[in-house]
Amino acid sequence: MDRKRLVFVGVLQAALASGCGSGAPVGGGSYFVGDVTSDIQLDTTDAATGCQGRYVDRLLDLGYPAAMVALPDGFAVVGHTSGASPSEAWLGRTDPQGNVLWHRTFGGATSDMGRDVLALSDGFAVAGQKGSDGWLLRTDLQGNLLWEKTFGGGGGTTFAAFVALADGFAIGGYGLGNAWLVRTDLAGSLIWQQTFGGPEQESVADVLALPDGFLLGGRTASKGAGETDAWLLRTDLQGNLLWDKTFGGVGNDLVVAVVALPDGFAVAAQTDSFQTGKSEAWLIRTDLAGNIVWDRRYGGDGTNVAAMVGVPDGFAIAGWRHGASNDAWLQRTDLQGNPSWSKTFDSGGNDTGRDLVALADGFALLGGPAARLRCTDAWGNVSCAEAGACAVIAAESCSDGNLCTVDSCDAEKGCTHDERGDGVACATGKTCTAGVCSK
Question: What is the rounded radius of gyration, in angstroms, for the C-alpha atoms of the chain?
């Protein structure tokens, strides 16, 4: 999921000696573009090769990861323990190189999970699930628990994403089968709550704070065209529904992340409505009323989507692609959703991309299943050996497995993947459409 820490348009100038890091959020604009994106420049020039860029690929080994937030000197990561029952929520703090400085666990009497994290001036906030309740925690800067609150009264409720406001928090999730929006003060006390939906199951995966209300993204089974539809909802400042839109076909479709733009919204979704039984990434661009302006699909046969960020010249989407084992996946597009390049990452097991942060000259990708931090350059290279100017790479080594891209190696950018035009034959009985093979 893609969490919006503060609503802003701006950059932060800073410098670090080496490694991968980002700056604290900057307040000041009315619309959010990107996920805590800053202009930190890192001098990581390799004296032997002349390779410039930030490259980190480190196993944090903290447990199952869910979300991350970039800090001026590293990252905070949240998730839950794996391999033990009941599970505990955990919060970890790293330096720019991904070295774990400390980690804390919370809960454990019930199956407890951390699903989202915010960086505040005096510590951290974590939202998730404690047993069958939505759960909100506050810690100090060392991760020591200050207070915790539960919401929902049991019966299957959880928080999935939240935003910090000047006077509290707005938290999205699901409660008793409905999409759920909760508003609290800074001490976690309930101000109001709203539910949305019908007789079937609904949920919220992401929430944005806007100047005059909130935007929610999730899924609904009570309306739309298929089993579940991707769902976008707009509310006022009290959580009253202003409008909602569904997107999808006959299968299962869901929104995982939303980004607000000056003239509308970017919506990252997952769909299996267009290729039977095979999920794809789906990027939808809407106007301010939620009407589709354009949409694009990526990934092909079996792709899961978990996060999206906006960057000055487009979007980046993270998730994983299915094969013999799962590979973490990063897709870059321009402002019209046309594919620029894609990368897959494989650590030898089932690898996933769970969350994503855009940095000044690259990306930070949180993966699973045991929490792995990857910091790439602007073209998704995760090591100096992959960047074209630093090593001799055969063009075939750049293959992304997509028959609708021409793969080559650029001396500066490393591997590139130029999209073939729509209608080009890519397999027996199939042609290229929006960058992927489809009938």
Answer: 21
Residues 42-46: contacts with CB within 8 Å, 24+ apart? 42/15, 42/16, 42/17, 42/18, 42/96, 42/361, 43/15, 43/17, 43/18, 44/18, 44/19, 46/384, 46/390
Q: What gap in Å lies between CA 208 and CA 6, rounded to an integer?
A: 9
The residue-averaged pLDDT of 48-56 equals: 59
Tell me the whole-structure pTM to 2 decimals.
0.83
Give the single-character DSSP code of 228.
Answer: B
Q: Give the model confidence (pLDDT) of 366-417 as tens digits.
A: 998 889 999 988 888 887 766 665 555 566 667 777 888 888 777 666 777 8
How far apart, in whole angstroms, are the C-alpha atoms of residue 255 and residue 74? 28
Cβ neighbour number for residue 406 with a 10 Å cutoff? 12
Domains plus CATH for the chain?
15-391 (2.130.10.10), 393-439 (no CATH)
Q: Which two tokens stand for residue 176?
A: 């008793």
Higher model confidence: residue 348 or residue 236?
A: 236
Please provide the size of the chain in residues.
439
